[in-house]
Amino acid sequence: MSAVDYGCDAVYLGSTMFGMRAGAAKFDPETLRNGVEYAHAKGVKVYLTCNTVPSNDEIELLPEFIKTAYDCGIDAAIVSDIGCIALIKRTVPELEIHVSTQAGVVNYVTANELYKMGAKRVVLAREVDIENIKRIRDNIPEDMDIEVFVHGAMCVSFSGRCLLSAFMTGRNANKGECAQPCRWKYHLVEEKRPGDYYELSEGDGGSYILNAKDMCMIEHLKELKDAGVTSFKIEGRAKSA
């Protein structure tokens, strides 16, 4: 509700399945309907995340899931898997499709193919620079939106396609369960001196060898707009107000 009350024109949220924030608050059908009604009453759209990489068993549950969400009044689904895109378009063809940053779109050829599949908007990979955003804008249909993140975490891997969490903790980042081991504090060990831990000096907070600095693009908003960005996205799920 804070995002709605503080001036955004759309919010994105997750339900009980298919969302990339397994630890965040989830909207069941009743609370989703209530949330959509609250947002719409204030002129704010609601986009539902369906951007995990689903297994065979999981994807079979998608049609019923998306029909229920559509009946609750969502304005778009945020999707990364091309099978999910096709299945959603067959199930509820009227529902707008936004391609998630998890799809890793970095060029206009991919964006155009997704447009042909029915995507209305593409959320570009966080790695795309302003010059290439403009090239994408110049080479895709005018009615296809471009959305970019302007604030939030940066993954040490490529737009969240990381297996480190699954390897170290058994929690799969591609299922929305990332334990963020890249943010942990590490020490250097020399193999002939087991038990001796050497600090990698960097600052008062120690050294975080895998932890990328969080994104903050507030000083570049005009450049992004001039490059053709339609929508600015602020990371908010699993964060405090």
Helix content: 25-40%
Taking pLDDT < 50 over at least 5 consecutive residues as the criterion, the unreliable ranges are none
Order of helices and strands: HEHEHHEHEHEHEHEEEHE
- CATH class wording of the largest domain: Alpha Beta
> How much of the polypeptide forms β-strand, as a percent range?
15-25%
Number of domains: 2
Shape designation:
globular
CATH topology of the largest domain: TIM Barrel
Average pLDDT number: 87
Largest sheet: 8 strands, mixed
Number of strands: 10
Counting H and I runs of at least 4 residues, what is the number of helices?
9
Proper CATH architecture of the largest domain: Alpha-Beta Barrel
Radius of gyration: 19 Å
Helices and strands in order, then pairings?
Blueprint: H1 2-5, E1 10-13, H2 29-41, E2 45-50, H3 56-59, H4 62-71, E3 76-79, H5 82-91, E4 96-99, H6 108-116, E5 119-123, H7 130-138, E6 145-152, H8 164-169, E7 188-189, E8 197-198, E9 215-216, H9 221-226, E10 231-234
Parallel strand pairs: 1-2, 2-3, 3-4, 4-5, 5-6, 6-10
Antiparallel strand pairs: 6-9, 7-8
Short description:
29% of the residues lie in helices and 17% in strands. It has helices at 2-5, 29-41, 56-59, 62-71, 82-91, 108-116, 130-138, 164-169, 221-226; strands at 10-13, 45-50, 76-79, 96-99, 119-123, 145-152, 188-189, 197-198, 215-216, 231-234. Strands 1, 2, 3, 4, 5, 6, 9 and 10 form an 8-stranded mixed beta sheet that branches. It has a two-stranded antiparallel sheet with strand order 7-8.
